[in-house]
Write a structure and sequence with these properties.
282 residues, Lipocalin, 10-stranded antiparallel beta barrel
Length: 282
């Protein structure tokens, strides 16, 4: 989510931090509540034969890594590269995020150096592109020792295109802005299992579950609203985004396929500090 449709003015910096939550309604959230007790049944065994429950645990491990029910924080910095274009970097719960935006509607100055303050344009709009990358494994507080036997790893890369519109409160968003927009995301997932001590029966003969890797991609869309409020160089931020995601099909530990889809709600609250532009209008 972005603070407004107005990009960071040329020569200005913006730094901030948010607290965010990821609330999944895709059907896996209920499984999170019972997975710890189910996994504990296997944690005292030196070797394990796969059954339906264990396979369901592996499905939840995949789903949890892709769309967790979680809360965290992020830090970010933005810089106005040239007029109408800014760049940003964000660190978000282990994910590294880079983005750029182009502003196609509205003024691009700051409230203290723009000659248009006497008749300010209140509407701003921008189009951006954002790339993020993240790697993760199984959270052991949910899956215990059985998670180590899965030897599961996952990486994801996301390409997001946001369209953002906003209405400024005061000239050049001196008091903040109301923001809303649409999001389109393309996600690529790579994950693997290399089971240790987990067996299956093949014609009555125990055999280790073979290791395997999968490479999947899916698209998702969503919308967001955002309120930025404050004065001059420091602002509070409140917002939420809602995504619909069809994750497609995945292979679980016994290499049977399953799929899931649904909505994800991402509320957030934060603070942002901005600097005046180092390029003053004459």
């Amino acid at each position: 989510m972005f603070l407004s449709g107005k990009v960071t003015p040329k020569g200005s910096f913006a730094v901030g931090s948010n607290v965010t939550a990821n609330i999944s309604t895709s059907g896996v959230s209920q499984a999170y509540k019972t997975i710890k007790s189910a996994a504990s049944e296997y944690n005292n065994r030196d070797s394990t034969f796969i059954d339906e429950q264990l396979n369901n645990i592996s499905k939840t491990a995949i789903a949890y890594s892709i769309d967790p029910v979680s809360a965290g924080y992020d830090f970010y910095i933005r810089y106005g590269l040239v007029k109408k274009v800014d760049l940003g970097y964000r660190y978000n719960n282990g994910a590294h995020v880079l983005d750029a935006r182009y502003q196609f509607i509205g003024t691009t100055g700051t409230f203290n150096n723009n000659a248009e303050n006497t008749n300010p344009k209140r509407w701003h709009g921008s189009l951006g592109i954002q790339y993020s990358s993240q790697s993760s494994g199984i959270p052991f507080d949910y899956f215990g020792l059985i998670g180590q036997q899965f030897n599961f790893s996952l990486s994801r890369k996301d390409l997001l295109i946001p369209l953002t519109l906003s209405y400024a409160f005061g000239p050049e968003e001196k008091y903040g802005a109301f923001c809303f927009g649409l999001l389109f995301t393309k996600t690529r997932i790579k994950y693997s299992f290399s089971p240790q001590g987990i067996y299956q029966l093949n014609q009555g003969i125990p055999q280790l579950i073979p290791a395997f890797k999968e490479d999947k991609s899916f698209i998702s869309g969503g919308a967001f609203i955002h309120l930025k409020f404050g004065f001059k160089f420091i602002y509070g931020v409140l917002g939420t985004a809602l995504y619909y995601q069809n994750f497609g099909s995945f292979k679980s530990l016994n290499q049977t396929t399953f799929g899931f889809k649904g909505f994800t709600l991402v509320p957030n609250a934060g603070i942002i500090m901005t600097s005046p532009s180092i390029f003053r209008k004459k």
